[in-house]
Amino acid sequence: MTRRKLVSLARQHGTPLFVVDHRQLRRNLVQFRRWLPFVQPYYAVKANSLPEIVRTFYRAGASFDVASWAEFQLVYENIRDLPEKERQDFIWDKVIYANPIKDRETLCALDPYKPLVTYDNYEEIRKIRRYAPHAGLMLRLRVPNTGAMVELSSKFGCEPGEAVRLIEAAHDAGLTVEGLSFHVGSQTTNFQNYVQALHIAAGVLREARSRGFKKMIQLDIGGGFPAPYDANVRPLRELGRLLRTEIPRLFPKDIFVLAEPGRYLVATACTLVAEVIGKAVRDGKVCYYINDGVYHTLSGIVFDHMKYKVRAFKHGPTSLCAVFGPTCDALDTISLAEELPDLKLGDLVYVENIGAYSIASSTHFNGFPPAKVVHLYADEDPTPP
Ligand SMILES: Cc1ncc(COP(=O)(O)O)c(C=O)c1O
Fold first, then answer.
1. Pick from 233, 266, 299: which residue ends a domain?
2. Which pTM was predicted?
């Protein structure tokens, strides 16, 4: 998206403005399929749950990973038009409830749809047996998350040594385990995580099948696919090559492989435009205050361990400065060391590649609402405000 276009959108709609480029969303999905042609992508809605994004991926043929009843309903809204039988097929084939911990109410609500759900412990088996006995199960394994930007293995996943016992326990409870899942950590550039996870999963599957669990036909390789935030990020092409070699080598031919990409599909498709609303000099350093921050679209600084680069539209010699968000909290610090030209109140700044784990966790803290969203479907086609 050109800088000129961003400025014109900000003039038209005001700031802070979150611009979603749906062409880029579709391109990202095409790239994912290109490098991982044997993997069905289930978009992880948590990365960005704007309904328009869900709709674009639905139309492009993606499946969905949901983490809550609300996300399930969001996906369900998009398939309302389908005849009942197709709707049920869609949920069976194209939706996974991939949060290993589910409350009773959610399980009761999900049960009539007979969904695929993940689990990783005995308490969850008891709950699923009682409240969602028609669900299909995927056992989430604990795998190395070494070097991932966001580590997940301390929270979820059973130890590989316990996996077959958990499969047997689910079976004894009258449930069907359909496969295995793992997550190597978000923004994983250490591709060895995937290799090790595949080895672990292949070992568990081999043992489970040898004990008669022949219905285990699905392998969910999770998310973690790195978004190309900068030129140092190893490209998906490289990971695709590795997975294309390892998966057929380690798994039987009848295995169905799915993945839950979130960040990779949305990160590069969104840009934030904000405005300088304050300026002060503190300890000799210029401090800019902009009208979006850590409690809003830039929440990824806290929750996603992201370092965003704030850029100016203006040219000129730059100097070291600090950039803060609009709230009264000192945590609302975007950067203490940004290089920006001399900015005046009312000047615009922008942050690229901010589609993932950003507006999804925006709050109303201090009474500031989340950024306004504008959707671009084609060059001259912004959604009306
Ligand atoms: C279960 C699960 N699946 C998929 C994702 C998406 O991962 P990513 O955005 O790294 O692709 C996450 C992210 O936390 C997750 O917890």
1. 266
2. 0.96
